[in-house]
Amino acid sequence: MAVFIDGYLLFFKKNTAASLINASTSTTAASSQPSSASSQSSSYTNGSYTGNSVSMRWGNVQVKITITGGKITKVQTIDYPQDNNHDQQVNSMALPTYESESVKNNSSNIQAVSGATETWKAFKSSLQSALNQAKV
Q1: 64: number of CA atoms within 13 Å, CB side?
Q2: Is pLDDT at 15 greater than 70 in this prediction?
Q3: 27 Cβ partners below 8 Å, 6+ apart?
Q4: 20, 67, 105, 129: which could form a disulfide with 44 (CB 3.0–4.6 Å)?
Q5: Is 37 inside a domain boundary?
């Protein structure tokens, strides 16, 4: 039952909350000066940055990012648990999702994939340490 509720909230309520946030953001953005919007989109220094290796229950996770034009253009997980079939199965599904969401959101603000919460925590932490290095 909890899985059903989580799935419902994740897929159906997420869009409603995002719409409210987007509406609020667009109203705020319309009233703010254009220079603040442009500085927001270029908040990182171009280059490649490697985040800290973060230890979790199943092993270590480490992320490398590429910043181009002040935005995340590539996220690569360079170290992750892959010692057994379960690790390989979970990470082959979760890590590409985390990487693409990071690029799409231009931040470490990403959703967890069900069954990969520990990996998500470690991924976000390593990603954030790389982003901290890239801050202007």
Answers
A1: 7
A2: no
A3: none
A4: 67
A5: no
Residue 38 lies in a domain: no
When divided into structural domains, the chain yields a total of 2
Q: Domain range holding 72? A: 43-134
Pull the structure tokens for residue 125. 């932490």
Residues 75, 103 contacting (CB under 8 angstroms) = yes
Whole-number pLDDT of residue 43 = 85
Contact 60, 53 (CB under 8 A): yes
Question: What CATH number is given to the structural domain containing 108?
Answer: 3.90.1010.20
CA-CA-CA-CA torsion for 88, 91, 97, 101, nearest 10 degrees?
-150
Mean pLDDT score of the chain, rounded to an integer? Answer: 77
The DSSP code sequence of 36-61 is HHHHHHT-B-SEEEEPPPEEETTEEE
Q: Which of 63, 66, 67, 71 is nearest to 128 (CA)?
A: 63
Nearest-Å Rg of the Cα atoms of the chain is 17
pLDDT above 50: residue 136: yes
